[in-house]
Structure prediction request, 370 residues.
Amino acid sequence: MKIGVPTEIKPSENRVGMVPAGIDTLCDDGHELLVQEGAGLGSGITDAEFVQAGAKILPDADAVYGEADMIIKVKEPIEEEYGRIRKGQLLFTYFHFAANEVLTDAMVASGADCVAYETVEQGKTLPLLTPMSEVAGRMAVQEGAKYLEKPMGGRGVLLGGVPGVHAGRVVILGGGVVGHNACKMAAGLGAHVTIMDIDMDRLRYLDDVMPANVTTRYSSRLGIQEELERADLVIGAVLITGYKAPNLVTRADLKMMPPGAVIVDVAVDQGGCVETIKATTHLDPVYEVDGIVHYGVANMPGAVPRTSTFALTNVTLPYARRLAGLGLKQAFARDAGLALGANVMGGAITHAGVAEAFGREAVALESVLG
Prediction:
């Protein structure tokens, strides 16, 4: 199979879908690897390293998409790329379709087979989302702390505090991978942290492993409002796999928060769990609503591409090998968790969460695969 690795062109996105070790492995499997010139530079990987691993360097995205049977990316295609994608081509990347109807319609119209990293499952885990959730969770505290500084528009609070002064208060909505990692970072800085979830088993686990400056709390509407009243930093970390994130914080709730408080909504790529959040970029990451600073960068790990690229490709490579080596039908038959990554296939929406987001009917994957 011809496998293409194009340059990511989403604003401030410096990751790349494959590293030289993955190129080497896929070449050993008998595939031809086509890498766009300069695709790895943002992650510190040169064309020469790709060539040494066995890749062929192509001059532009048109050449990569035009030749490749399978495209391995990091982020969803943007409008400039829609016309390059063709019927029967396999795309393996993050899509987050439920938050983007335009993208969904474009991929349906293309007839391509879209397998989304974020809905592939292994047991009860999301193996291809986990490493980027770990990065984003840790970055959420780092970015939140920065934008709490007065020159950045925040209320001028040092999260860790100093002797004789209260530490900052952090509220984390969601106790999954993002929430867990954000909690570790915030607690390590010395902040007072409250982490909220509706899964009592998860809260019991977090209560056992977190230090004394972390409080676990069952997530309810009133409970969230009470926590917002004294929150310096709110981190949205809610995920319902494949579905649009629920709104847990409304615009009216912002009036309860201290002026200059910061919201970092990591769920923004699935629509966000804060009503007033909108997707931003690393070039223009924040905006203010009712005196509250909002950070809505949808590709947070793109700011640390060297770390993120290697963390991501460590977990995507085994799945890429299955898809390329077995083909879709056989790969899905052997791995039901991988089959859950099928979101848009051959001109049809095959994931229930994506279909529900836009009031449509999902088509059974089996009928599309024939």
User: Anything to note?
Assistant: Residues 323 and 370 are 17 Å apart (CA to CA). DSSP finds 15 helices and 15 strands in the chain. The mean pLDDT is 96.
